[in-house]
Amino acid sequence: MAIPNSQSMTVLGIESSCDDTSVALIKHKANIHPQVLSLIVLNQNHLHKQYGGIVPEIAARAHSDKLDYCTIEALRQANSKVHDIDLVSVTAGPGLIGGVLSGVAFAKGLSWGIGIPIVGVNHLAAHALSPGLTTECHFPYLCLLISGGHCQFLAVLSPKEYRRLGGTIDDAPGEAFDKTARHLGLPQPGGPSIEKLAKNGVSDRYHFPRPLTGREGCDLSFSGLKTAFLREVEKIHGTTGSVSEQQQADLCASFQKAVSDTLRIKSQTAITQFETQMKQKPTFFALTGGVAANHELRGSIEALCHDNGIKFYAPPLKYCTDNGAMIAWAGLQLFYLGQADGLELQARSRWPLDPNSRPLLGFGKKGAKA
Ligand code: KG4
Ligand code: ZN
Description:
Shape: globular
Strand content: 15-25%
Helix content: 40-55%
Low-confidence stretches: none
Distance between the termini: 29 Å
Strand order of the largest sheet: 3-2-1-4-5
Bound molecules: 5'-O-[(R)-(carboxyoxy)(hydroxy)phosphoryl]adenosine, zinc ion
Order of helices and strands: EEEHHEHEHEEEHHHHEHEHHEE
Largest sheet: 5 strands, mixed
Radius of gyration: 21 Å
């Protein structure tokens, strides 16, 4: 369903699949970049801190407590009224089911109350489509989605069609950064803490593996790397009784380099696989998800894309981490393609983007892996 050139759409996007409650209002007119009128993100770190991980029940309760506040604030900051909203877009999965249910129930109430359509969005699709909030991206393109709960190479064929070229067989890189930081007693989320210390470190002081890089395909694994880090920390403790500031910095730099090298090597494989499967070279490589904030990694993938003659793009950080704006934008694109869900919209804990790809086993930060 294409919108007439003169008409604009105002979309409310709701995200509650993990530990960020986020609501955004975006406005879109055909042939013009979407405009993010407001973006509210409330993090729950302080609620989960004492438990050493996200407690799903606490997360769900906090989302349902804060969704109305976030919506009112998003409308206020956008200088808009509830009746200005044309469409409600909500994360309907995958994620922690209690949180997803809170968002879906809230969105249904709102859409029914105002009498406007609702669209249920796959959270992973929203990450993959997030570059479109700030730049032009033509389908099909290659996307590396790396966050605290997910890690996959995707051929993005359209807003509703994806091919999974590969992904992690165990931990996501963000999970590995978070757990590694915990071993050193650094604040959560771990990624920014590791990156900060790594700035003063020597990246070849400790030798960590580049998992699965000797194997064909672009599947990844980060659990062994995380264990190798732990062993190294234990070894240092065993010999000197503590880890010095310089050793911490060198450990962080060496770990960050191992993650970045691994993702660069596998990105090269993904580029080749994209070309084989799509019968065309990718012209655009999107790096999305919270870990895309890492400068070492951004630089490394950008250089790889440059060598391959591919345009590289990583969205601004606020659109890389979980946010309502990417949900609004993904929902709007699905709406243009004719999707409108009713009150029967279901929340899903698992929701693979590519139904033909192998199911991923295990549970991560966001619950069951998609
Ligand atoms: O996309 P996101 O906000 O939430 C999930 O969907 O998981 O990603 C959060 C993850 C965390 O694990 C965090 O440690 C990681 O992104 N992260 C980083 C950096 N900033 C955030 N990892 C490495 N370097 C960073 N600068
Ligand atoms: Zn996410």
